[in-house]
Amino acid sequence: MIRFILKRILLLIPVIIGVSFIVFALLEAAPGDVADAIIARAGEVTAEDIEAIRAAHNLDRSMFYRYGVYMLNLIQGDLGISDITGLSVWNTFMQRLPNTLLLSFSALIIGMAVAVPMGIIAARNAGKLSDNFASIFTLVGMSMPVFWIGLILIQVFSGNLGILPVAGFDHGWRSLILPAICSGLSLTASTARQTRSSMLEVLKSDYLRTARAKGTSEDMVIRKHALSNAWIPIITAAGSSLCAQLAGSVVVESVFAWPGIGRLAAEAVFARDTTTVMGTIILTTVLYVLVQLLVDVLYAFIDPRIKSQYMNTSKKKKKTGMEKEAAAA
Amino acid sequence: MKKNRKLIALALGMVMALTLLAACAPGTDGPPADLARPEDAIGAGEEGVIEIPTTDIAADAQFADHVTVIVDNNVLSVMNPFSPAAAGTSTNWVFTMVHDRLLNLDADGASFNPGLALTYETTDFQTFRLTLREGVTFHNGDAFTAADVVWTITAAQEYGLGSSAFDQWRPVQTVTAIDDFTVEIVLENVDVDFLFAMTRPMSGILNERAWRAHPDTGAHIGTGAFIIDEFISGDLVRMSRNHNWWNTDHGYEHITENVTLRFVPEMPTRTVMVQTGEAQFSFGTPPGDMDWFMDSPDFQVVTTTSNDPQGLAFNLANPITGDYYFRRAVLHALDREAIGFGAAGPWADGRMTDGTFWGYTTQFRNTNIPIIPRDLDLAREYLERSSYNGEPVTLTTAIMTNIMASQIIQAQLLEIGINIVLDETDSAGLGAFTMYGGTEHQMVMFFYLMTPNAGSVRHSFVPGGGQNRANFNNPEVTALLDEARVTVDLAQREQLYLRVQELVAEELAYTSIFWRRFGNVAANGFGGIRLNPDPASHDLRGVFYVVG
After folding, report:
1. What is the helix (H) or strand (E) element at residue B236, kind and residue range?
2. CB contact under 8 A, B272 and A36
3. Which alpha helices (H) appear in B319-465, and where do they start and end?
4. Which of A43, A129, A270 is facing B428, going by the closest CB pair?
5. Who has greater pLDDT, B119 or B31?
6. Which fold has domain A89-319?
7. Model ipTM value
8. In A12-142, which ranges are E strands?
9. Residue B452 structural domain
10. In terms of domains, do B356 and B484 share one?
11. pLDDT per residue over A129-144, tens digit each?
12. Are B430 and B315 in contact (CB under 8 A)?
């Protein structure tokens, strides 16, 4: 198992190289570079100034050289200094990360707490009123734009009812409620749909019929036998949604003036701040991969068959290695 | 099936009910207002600094300990004047609150008052001797001396390339501390605008020890009225009152203990924050919400007209837009009033009475330059004389108001057969893509930063100017601007600038379309803000909120 986790963590290296190179190349292809962005903000610049700015940011060297320098620094744990603000990218990111994690995990908790029971109820009552209600809820939840939901929530709960703060995070946990519900709604919708379809599939299984025939209570059938087998696709969907929240919650963050990494990345793109864009995307990629790894590990805990698969793969590889040694001897 | 229909109807009904509930914003049950009425707002039609409240404050008034001000489309990204990112207007408001300058500009925009320098002496506008104020301390407790002035200027030149601070201190050749409280600054050349440069928000004096100890946050230390307690890049800055501020004769009614400036990107969010009392003042309130605020007895609407012209630039280095007849044809085809109204409704200021490309409060404005009138026959005639053959011409623009203005320009130019293709981008993209020296762009619709000081127009008219989107390079204009910078006599300087405007107008490289009025909302009881036609110079040090 540990071997599997280590292997997945090692896979981060090619992923980071690939992602960073693509992002670097895309930023290179975009009109205007860091020097242009700096000069455009300056009052009056001479040709010497422009040359100095370009030299300071290595823009007089090839893209591959600059990418190489960036990666060399990255290996040493240095994400660099923002080209535009002069602030440490790591510090800026870490200042925002807790806010994004808080928002994303709150959304996940809300989403799972609502979605799983809703999906189960819908599956157990397929075609009935509660199933239809759940279908409509998920359809609406997935169709409505997040910014619109956010504005409606603000208007109703802050503007009309006056019971929750509008934006920012000055009011402790109360500040978290609206953005978390807003983020959680689409997550709830997608996870509830996934839960329903997984449960429907499992509920038709022969082994459940056998369990019922043996007199096992319906609650026990659902909780112990059905749900444990339906968890895999549910966790997959929830994991993907969480990753999307971590990487792309810029809309919710903007509506609720929530200082997270989504807004940081968007503002850096607008400012042509290559170093911050690169740093933010690389760190978000790491988060993404770690969440996916967590999901894979959870699979193993939920389903012993998958755990044994992980173990078998490791053993098989070990054996193959021994065999090779024997053959060589 | 019937049951499903009922369910769908029920669900739709619920969604509608939720929407209706949301639509019941406070006050919408009042009489529906007319179009926004900026002319009824505080400050409408006024020039110069606007301050609220306009009525007296009761002697026993109770002030709130904390005031929150919402900042609109300028991200608070860094609080270091040596950074290129510190050019945003709202960042400059914080600099004014935190860092004191050597001199301050009077409200009339023409005379200079003591700041950290008690007096200045100059006979030739090349050598300046400043006597500094004694007994001033930085927020970290260090005493302010001449060494801080020397360090700030040299550090801006050394570390600030591309920043506004660098631009202000660039003319300095040497800066010497004569003693602890006397500084001599020698410029490379005579520069009559240098006094103005010393008053700019980004020209505040910093503390070397703090800056060296913490490069990220050391620039937060100043001698000003407020101390930065917390700064989250891109989000907010929290400040508390500096009780050791040297300026006891500040003239503000009240200085609040804690002030927060928060960047809120979404306009509807800003509106609700002011409505619910989460903020006491908001810049950039949506025009559509203004009627509600104007009709409400609990709020006051304050408007300012920006000194920066919203205008059109033609890239003279491009074969099509570099053709004089083409430019002339375009200008005869434009209906400025329709563009301004269409883009900003009544929030476009209709004070466009002449044809110069200049800030309306910028010194030496030449009001004798006529506007090129809309005349489609003449426009077609000039277009025929041009080399234009119906090919698409790109109009680059950014920010919603200018995008809307560009769409109207596109429609108006189509009337004479000019095929405009819009290139919508963001501000940074526009800045980068339409740099001086670039030949790819053709026409640009944007705003042009102009301060009350005439020297600021150089940025649009000289080669290398940060806003020279027209590739404007008229040696006569450059020579006049250079001469104006070294001309001490005001009357002579005025003549030079008047001539500059004539030459620029003759060349038709730029044209003003309209001025933008900004609508800002304050809760009743909020006051002390000084709003300047130069948006970077708004003064928030005296903001207060009366609670009882």
Report:
1. strand B236-241
2. no
3. 324-333, 336-344, 376-385, 400-414, 427-433, 458-461
4. A270
5. B119
6. MetI-like fold (1.10.3720)
7. 0.79
8. none
9. 310-515
10. yes
11. 888 888 888 888 888 8
12. no
